Amino acid sequence: MELRHLRYFIRAAEFLHFTRAAESLNVSQPTLSIHIQQLEEELQCSLFERAGRHVRHVRLTEAGSRLLQHARTALHELELGKQDLAELRGLLCGTLRFGWTHVFTPRLMSAALPAYTAEYPGVHVIMKLRRVVEIEHEILSGAIDLGLSWIPPESDEIEYEALFSDELALAVALRHPFAGRTEVSIRELDGLSLALPTSGTNSRRLLEIPLVKENVSPKVVVEIDDIPARLLFVETIGAATIVSRRAAENRPELKCLPITGAHLGRSAGVLKPRGVRLSSAATAFVDTIKTHFQEIKSL
In this structure, is residue 87 part of a structural domain? Predict the structure, then answer.
């Protein structure tokens, strides 16, 4: 069995489409098919269910699903081994892939990431700005090593470590009727026109729990997941939204108001796959993140 066979198999399992998987690997589709066939012949079992000879959409068989877990673990361990050998030469290297949500941006970009890249210049850092659900999915699929997101995660296959707590607040444009206030009660949100995250997202669900409990129904005029875009919309039309306090408080065109009468706090932290040994590059990054976030009580 060649490592190339496993790499091609994993990519095909991720795309479930041979042509797209081949394109991502920069090989022809027949080449990918041949390698998959060779792997199946060696293992003496089918790894994919094919709908027809000329149909490139496939599904994993039970054998394929089981092999996928082992293949990912094998390649992960191989990468760790390569990094361990590099460290014997006195150089921390390798690739660090992590996803993060907007709330981490100020401290991450101004302190933690510059400190990490300065101390470990041999590490290739790949950063992916993602929604919460995307971060968890990519951790489970192996697309990223770590996540910086809200906790706890939905999947039991992801473990986490808390970094800081966060408070949600009402952000209003300076010409909004509430702009002269110092705070607002949750009852006053009833019927209030708001720009909010889309339904089903982690942020929206967090808001809906106290709103439903207090029988409060704001008027959702627009749904935007991207926080900077939502805040720009609020500034432009003189509207209001509910976001992380830190996300809005440094914008001169907005007024940030605490919401009383309900608990709208949540915690953020580092997410990683449960039971998987992190690379030295990832471990060093976690240590750096903890150092630069440990003094924060709230963002």
Answer: no
